[in-house]
């Protein structure tokens, strides 16, 4: 009967998820050379090339694609078995920015739980600025936020496009201030949007402020106001009215992951979370 080395399978899954031997080695707390050796032994064991490697890219082979789901299930079953024996419970404080959080969040947390059942995930939703402050104060273990100002640290997970979203029947009368729904004054997206309006000489007024992302979405859907939102999380039935109303284009932004975790177990869980995030963005 064919048996597989769990560590080698874990290395394969991590490389497949992160598309990089270097990032996989960092997530697993080992070296790129060690990852390569494990992958070579695994491919020799199963009798197939699982990854296609070039100097610039790493991608799954046809056999690797077929093997990936079963490999995930093997790793998850192994982690559950170990967790049931001796892995101590661990708390994981995760912040997710309101302009980043979308319908995929439950699936992301489910993937994280499957990776480590003894991990208690404490999620906090807020704007990027507040979450970065909490992370810098050591009150969050990790944060998925929009890149702020000139801060260049953190791992880039995705890119976001923004627009001016409103209900299809939104009525803006020429000469009147633009009715704006936005998050709190510390929200980076809100500040970029209002600064763009000021530079363009467009008058605006906030008629719905600080009620949280769900409340802002409700105000937009109801036709009460317009809001600067990511294309990915704009409410169903709303449209980008920026061109129609002559509003300034909003710059794109990066979604980044900040983490202070250093132990192997937590880094592996974080790697699984980042991989799941990228997968959902790619599908979207």
Summarize the helix and strand pattern as letters.
HHHEEHEHEHEEEEHEHEEHEH
- Count the beta strands: 12
Low-confidence segments, ≥5 residues, pLDDT <50? Answer: none
- Number of folding domains? 3
Described by strand count, sense and barrel closure, the largest sheet is: 5 strands, mixed
- Strand line-up in the sheet with most strands: 4-3-5-12-6
| Structural class based on helices, strands and sheet pairing | alpha/beta
Mean pLDDT: 83
The outline comes out as elongated
Query: What's the CATH topology name of the largest domain?
Result: D-Maltodextrin-Binding Protein, domain 2
CATH class of the largest domain: Alpha Beta
CATH superfamily of the largest domain: Periplasmic binding protein-like II
Instruction: Supply the number of helical segments.
Output: 10
Any guess at the CATH architecture of the largest domain?
A: 3-Layer(aba) Sandwich
Strand portion, in percent? Answer: 15-25%
Helix content: 40-55%
Quote the distance from N terminus to C terminus.
40 Å
Structural Rg = 22 Å
Describe this protein's structure:
With 284 residues, the protein is of the alpha/beta class. Strand 1 (51-53) and strand 2 form a beta hairpin. Helix content is 44%, strand content 23%. The chain is elongated and about 75 Å long. The protein folds into 3 domains: 6-87, Winged helix-like DNA-binding domain superfamily/Winged helix DNA-binding domain (Arc Repressor Mutant, subunit A), CATH 1.10.10; 90-159 and 254-259, Periplasmic binding protein-like II (D-Maltodextrin-Binding Protein, domain 2, 3-Layer(aba) Sandwich), CATH 3.40.190; 162-251, D-Maltodextrin-Binding Protein, domain 2. The strands form 4 sheets. A 5-stranded mixed sheet has the order 4-3-5-12-6, sandwiched between helices. Strands 10-7-11 form a 3-stranded antiparallel sheet. 35% of the residues are buried. Helix 1 (6-18) packs across helix 4 (62-85) and helix 5 (105-115) runs antiparallel to helix 10. It has helices at 6-18, 21-28, 32-46, 62-85, 105-115, 128-136, 188-199, 213-221, 242-245, 264-283; strands spanning 51-53, 58-60, 90-97, 119-126, 142-146, 155-160, 162-167, 178-182, 204-209, 227-230, 238-240, 253-259. The two termini are 40 Å apart. It comes from Bradyrhizobium rifense. Keywords: DNA-binding, Transcription, Transcription regulation. Belongs to the LysR transcriptional regulatory family. GO terms for molecular function: DNA binding; DNA-binding transcription factor activity. Residues 4-61 form the HTH lysR-type domain.
């Amino acid at each position: 009967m064919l048996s597989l080395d769990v560590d080698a399978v874990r290395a394969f899954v991590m490389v497949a998820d992160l598309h990089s031997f270097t990032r996989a080695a960092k997530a697993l707390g080992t070296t790129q050379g060690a990852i390569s050796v494990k992958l070579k032994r695994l491919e020799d064991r199963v009798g197939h090339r699982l990854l296609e490697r070039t100097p610039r890219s790493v991608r799954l082979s046809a056999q690797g694609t077929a093997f990936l789901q079963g490999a995930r299930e093997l790793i998850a079953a192994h982690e559950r078995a170990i967790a049931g024996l001796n892995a101590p419970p661990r708390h994981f404080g995760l912040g997710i920015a309101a302009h980043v959080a979308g319908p995929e969040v439950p699936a992301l947390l489910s993937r994280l739980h499957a990776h480590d059942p003894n991990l208690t995930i404490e999620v906090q939703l807020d704007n990027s600025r507040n979450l970065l402050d909490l992370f810098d104060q050591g009150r969050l273990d990790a944060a998925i936020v929009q890149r702020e100002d000139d801060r260049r640290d953190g791992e880039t997970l995705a890119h976001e496009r923004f627009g001016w979203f409103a209900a299809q029947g939104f009525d803006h009368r020429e000469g009147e201030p633009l009715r704006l729904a936005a998050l709190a004054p510390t929200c980076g997206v809100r500040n970029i949007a209002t600064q763009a309006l000021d530079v363009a000489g467009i008058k605006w007024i906030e008629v719905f402020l600080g009620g949280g992302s769900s409340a802002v979405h409700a105000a937009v859907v109801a036709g009460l106001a317009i809001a600067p939102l990511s294309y990915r999380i704009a409410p169903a039935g709303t449209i980008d009215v920026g061109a129609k109303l002559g509003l300034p284009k909003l710059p794109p932004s990066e979604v980044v992951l900040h983490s202070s975790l250093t132990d192997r177990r937590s880094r592996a869980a974080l790697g699984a979370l980042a991989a799941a995030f990228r997968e959902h963005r790619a599908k979207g």
